[in-house]
Amino acid sequence: MKILVCISKTPDTTAKIAFTDNNTKFDTNGVQWIINPYDEWYALVRAIELKEKDAATTIHLITVGSADAEPIIRKALALGGDEAIRVNAESHDSFYVASQIAEVAKQGGYDLVFTGKETIDYNGSSIGGMIAELLDIPYISLATKFELAGTLATITREIEGGEETCEVTLPVVVSSQKGMAEQRIPNMRGIMAARTKPLKVVEPAAADALTSVAGFGLPPAKAGVKLVPADNVEELVRLLHEEAKAI
Amino acid sequence: MSVLIFIDTAEDGHVKKASLEAISYGAKIAEQLDTVAEGVVLGKVTGDLPSLGKYGVKKIHHVNNDALDHFDAQVDTKVIAQVAQQTGAKVIVFSNNVDGKAIAPRLSARLKAGLVSGAVALPDTSNGFTVKKNVFSGKAFANITVNTDIKIIALNPNAYQVVAGEGTAEVVTANVATEPGRVKVTHVTKSSGEVPLTEAEIVVSAGRGLKGPENWGMVEELAKTLHAATACSRPVADAHWRPHNEHVGQTGIAIAPNLYIAIGISGAIQHLAGVNRSKVIVVINKDPEAPFFKAADYGIVGDAFEIIPKFTAAVKQLKG
Questions:
Q1: How far is it, in rounded angstroms, from Cα B133 to Cα B119?
Q2: I need a labelling partner for B237 at 20 to 30 A (CA). Which of B79, B103, B272, B273 fits?
């Protein structure tokens, strides 16, 4: 059983969002980088749990990025996983990134590819579906549970107002969200072990970028809160009805 | 040439509200590009397809066979790709809902057509094809230029107003091959009678200020009165006071309702990232220094346990 877990480097959830170069680039000044939370807490930890149940499982981590991404991938290796692959390319186009991962996945013959449900920077929610299409295998998105019996996966995914459970025979690509697993903190042994785990750097395959970023912007600031006295809730309801036309 | 809109249906076959938004949005793009809006719908449908013409779709391609009654993104993608080819679609519109998030990226890879997922506005076609989308979990936006001949847009739910006019759509049976899928749906659980969180116009959300799961009755009562969905903050979901699928915020579900009412939630930056696209935000908190007030439109500083029942009563009175 071989699992490939996709890892993305994202700004910390509390990072200040600002742009440079005439609003065409994200301002990385002073930004703390983390493993994209969905990749770490749900995709990676669930993969590690599967390996804990079946020692014959191999976990490879993959990231597409420059050498700057290496501290992040080492941090991921400290949680678990046998080795990591970094595709030495930088792109903000999801098809380009998915093409790189699909290429590695094809060569590696993985049974299972895990991604987070989206990255918290570009919020694309696209990489998993694109990889699945490029490999022509099933894709289950927004998964909240994943169980495996032999080569049969039982997966629960979010639907509007509920959940749907399905069965699919491996290989499959799964995007993960809350419910899949619980966040873990790397221990000292894991951190030490991560230092010597293999981190392979491969050059990118030829692939097209289908989109480009024309520019960024910040949403307009709120005008300020209108406070209503606590003993006059009726006034709040009146404002919501007559002024905001929200109820 | 046409604008093709994926009309997403629920498990019971009804057309989702998010699809009506996608149709209205796609119809507007068709107008902008001086072409027609067509739709594609898969599997069994309950309800009246021709009447969707009032949202601006002229022709609906219906592909109906047993293989399409259950959701399988791999199967659906191949079918939609064929319809897109037959109709000469230049722009393909999805809702960026649970199904759109599964199909749109697959279709993008299949057709090598650039995808903008999470669009919040109509494309700017004055110079190329550029679409505004949310990034950094709603803390910023990006204008994404699509550089391919065919463009795919996944429109965020609640980002575009449904526009109803006059008209009837012609419904045709699409002649496409359907392959059997590898995904077998075994079980569907729907919380009945409640409003799905991502489709809700109004959301009532509560946090640690409610002190315990036993106090959620009054929150549900207010939500019911407003015909709203209920949501919660991360600490509440982590403490298992409420199910994790109610957790809104950066690491939970991102929502953008017309009205978001936050009760006893301080407003951590991660929570705000998931709700700051809401049109109107009301904050009820006993701490006047709660950071959430800075992001709110209306607020009450006070005790949630006193305010919620009064709120419910006032809404009941308003609705008669």
A1: 4
A2: B103
Q: Give B 275-314 residues with CB within 8 A of chain A.
A: 276, 279-283, 293-303, 306-307, 310-311, 314
Expressed as residue numbers, the domain containing B30 is 2-173
Q: Are residues B154 and B259 in the same domain?
A: no
Cβ neighbours of residue A64 closer than 8 Å, sequence gap 6 or more: A86, A87, A89, A90, A91, A97, A100, A101, A204
Length of chain B: 320
Given the candidates 3.40.50.720, 3.10.20.30, 3.40.30.10, 3.40.50.620, the CATH classification of the domain at A2-219 is 3.40.50.620
Q: Where are the domains of chain A?
A: 2-219
pLDDT at A222: 80
Nearest to B117 among A126, A138, A244 (CB): A126
Distance CA B45, CA B48 (A): 8
| Spans of chain B, pLDDT less than 70 | 192-194
Q: Quick one: what percent of chain A has pLDDT higher than 70?
A: 100
Nearest by Cα to B97 from B26, B195, B178, B6 = B6
Question: Which amino acid belongs to residue A230?
Answer: A
Q: Which of residues 235-274 of B touch A (CB under 8 A)?
A: 237, 244-245, 247, 250-252, 254, 258-259, 269-270, 273
Neighboring chain B residues of A246 at a CB cutoff of 8 Å: 202, 258-259, 279-280
CB-based contact B133 A138, cutoff 8 Å: no
The DSSP-derived string for A35-66 is: E-HIIIIIIIHHHHHHHHH-TT-EEEEEEES-
Which of A236, A238, A239, A243 should be substituted to probe chain B, the one whose Cβ sees the most B Cβ atoms within 10 Å?
Answer: A236
**What gap in Å lies between CA A76 and CA A8, rounded to an integer?**
10
- CB–CB of A8/A90 below 8 Å? no
Hey, are the CB atoms on A226 and B314 less than 8 Å from each other? no
Q: Choose the closest CB to A178 out of B77, B251, B314.
A: B251
* CA–CA distance, B89 with B107 (Å, rounded to integer): 13
pLDDT in tens, A209-241: 999 999 999 988 888 999 999 999 999 999 999
Closest by CA position to B197, among listed B281, B257, B276, B139: B257
Q: What ipTM did this prediction achieve?
A: 0.95
- B182 reaches A (C-beta below 8 A): yes
Taking CA A36 as the corner, what is the angle to CA A71 and CA B209, rounded to the nearest 5 degrees? 125
Consecutive sets of 10 residues in chain A, 247 residues long: mean pLDDT of each?
97 93 95 96 98 96 97 97 97 96 97 97 96 98 97 95 94 95 94 97 97 94 90 95 93
Q: Per the CB < 8 Å rule, is A161 touching B191? A: yes
B144 touches chain A (CB under 8 A): yes
Assess whether B208 and B262 both reside in one domain.
Answer: yes
pLDDT at A220: 82
Cβ of B314 and A19 within 8 Å? no
